[in-house]
Write the C-alpha cells for this entry.
Amino acid sequence: MKGNFEFRTRKSNRSLWVIECIDPNCSWRLRASKIVLESTKFVIRKYVGVHCCSLLNRNANHRQATYVVIGEQVAPQYVGVEKGPGLKGVQTFARTKLGAQISYYKAWRGRKHAHTLIRGSPEQSFHILPSYFHMLEKFNPGTVTRIEVDGESRFKYLFLAFGVAIRDGNGQCYPLAWGIVDSENEDAWTWFLTQLKEVIGDTVELALISDRAPSIKKAISTVFERAHHGACAWHVAQNIKNKFKCADIMGSYWSAVNTYRCEDFAGYMTEISHRYPRVAEYLENEVGFEKWSRCHYPGPRYNITTTNMVESLNSMLVNTRDFPYVALLDVI
C-alpha cells in the first residue's frame, strides 16, 4: 500500500486467499492458505514481490485504503487518551504511514471505526452495562448503581454513587453521584434526585446548590422536603451582567454574597440599589436573598456559594462525554 500499488483478489474462501496486481501483465502476486483446515491462521505459500507494471498504475487513492484499514492502523493512537488525532491528523497518518491520500469523509469513518475498536460501540456498551455495574458493586463495597429503562426495555437513565464517597469524604470534596440521562428535564432530575435521596437521606442540614433551571428547582422541591436549596452565586452574577449590562457592580454583589453579617449585607445592597435599582429588585424579589447570600441562607451552606466544582468536572469530561457509556464511566 505504501508504494501505491493496488491489488485485486483473484480467489478468496475460508481456506485460500490469492491476490495479484491489478495490471494483468504484472507478475506481483501472493498466495496464502490455512496451516491446517481446522485452524484460523493462514501461511504465505507463494509470494512474488517485484512489480513489473507501469508506474502509471500507481494510485495514491489506494483502493485497499478502506476506512476499516485506516481505523485498524490508527486505533493504537487512541489507547489511553481522551482525544487522540483529529480528522486532519488521521489524513496525515494515512499519507505518511500508509502512503494513501484519503478524503475527509474517509478519515471520519476511519476514526469512528478506531473509536469503536478501542472503546466499543454504543450497542456493546448498553449490552454490558448491567454486568459492568455488577462488578462495580462487587469490588467497591457500598457502591449504589441504578439503571432505568422504558416500557420497551430501552435505556433511559443510569445512576452511580461509589461506596467510598458515600461513607467517608475524609473532610475533602469528592463527586458523590453521577448520572446519565436523555436530557436535563424535570423527569430526569426527579429520577436522579430520588436515587440520590436513597443514598444520603433528607435533612435540614443538607444544602443543594444549583443553577436556577426551572426543572432542577421543581425536582428538588418534589424530592427533598427538608433540605435547603440555594442558587449558584456565579450563575446569578452572569444573569445580572447579561440582563442589566452592569459588570461594574460585581464587587458589591460578591461582597453581599460572602458576608456573614446581615448589617454588612444591607450596606452592600444599598450601594447596588442606589446605582442599579432594577438589579436590587431582581436579587430580592426574583431570585430571593435566601437563595444566593450566605447570611440569609436558612441552613448551613458549608462555605459553598457556587457550582464551580461541578463545572470543573464538566470541563474535565468535555472530550469524553460522547464516549459509549461504559468507556465514559471508565474515565470517571
Summary: The longest helix spans residues 122-139. Strands lie at 7-12, 16-21, 29-34, 42-48, 144-149, 155-161, 178-180, 207-210, 228-231. The first strand starts at residue 7 and ends at 12. The mean pLDDT is 92.
